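Re: [help] complex structure
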Amino acid sequence: MSTLYERLGGGAAVDQAVDIFYRKVLTDERVSGFFDDVDMEHQAAKQKAFLTMVFGGPNSYTGMDMREGHKHLVARGLDDSHVDAIVEHLGGTLKELGADDSDIAEVAAIANSVRDDVLNR
Amino acid sequence: MSSIIVNEQCYPLPSGATVLDTLLEAGLDVSFGCRAGVCHSCLVRASAGDVPAEAQQGLKQSQKEQGWFLACRCRPTGELSVELDAAAVPQYTARVVEKQLLAPRVMGVWLESESALDYRAGQYVTLRHDSGIGRNYSLASRTGSKNRLELHIARTEGGALSPWIHDTMAVGDQLSIEGPMGECCYLGGESERPLLLVGTGTGLAPLYGVLSDALQQGHHGSIHLFHGARSLDYLYYYDELRALSEEYGNLHYYPSLVESDGAVGPEIEVGPIDRLLSKHLPNLEGWRVYLSGAPDIVNTLRKQCFLAGAGSNAIHADPFG
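Output below.
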């Protein structure tokens, strides 16, 4: 069975998704504060790796990376409500790219599977 | 059969093998991560040969043109020369051939390198003084100028290099330069695309280079150049740019100062450059954007342009002020 990553069109689709997703995140007051002081170019590369992972594409993320990468944000108050907002924007991005509801649910499930690592629980 | 050439040594590629597989098999030192074209750890540069499009998926257009590719996604069909040590930047000796004050605190410096430098306008070089101190300066001269380089140097009080350049350095002096580096250059093949150039202070230098290349190559799309300065002491090339915008109907020039200066007429706007930009150009969907100047302003502008619709791959900025 093909992965959503392949069905969406692989790397090229992820490139397109990164811009849509990152624009949603940066304009959402609930979460934009967490992205204020990061270098945008660096951040876009990270978003791409993240989206590739949640779309079921090849990735090298480990739970440890997720924990380390978000530790400083948890200290600044990152909690479930923020993860919910990100999952919501993932869904919105996928909808714009023409994915169906079951694909969106699949992506949300992958994103939720790293929730505890992200929140350092 | 396909092969790669590294350090003058030829390595044949078994069918289906990637450049990364072959480099690792040969015991060469190359960094890598995901092996799937995502992490960009195995970014290397081809100096000759055809790079398959798949190996450049997701890279910036300017990186593609300079031959950068992902070794893990590259299955070449012919012979490909690969540079692993691309970080090693060539060094040249250059002589100062002209020095001219462009504004009270901005010095224009023209250098001639002893051998031709294969650079593109908007890239930058490191200028090194005898003491070993080096600073990065962008190239304002046109692509193809080969061994003649134009730099714009703002005077920074207490700076390591700029007071010396302004006060002491003389025509005939020899300097060491390293480069070229950077990817803030004009790209051919999209002559209808609207271009936005935004810079503060001597951040105008690479933009002036990009602009010169665009006009010389007959760019048809509109070109909007915003130049902001702290004071008139830093607002240079005003007359030249004004004249160019009268000569070329598609060039729009917006000079501005952060704060009002008694001497300023209505043709120079007053206010923060990011606000002037959003006032004039609220929608940047489909535009190519070049940013240069103070790092904090460049970061603000980068985000602003992205949110205004410019694609993240269509925004170019130099990583220094």
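The helical segments of chain B are 19-25, 61-65, 162-167, 204-216, 238-247, 273-280, 295-307.
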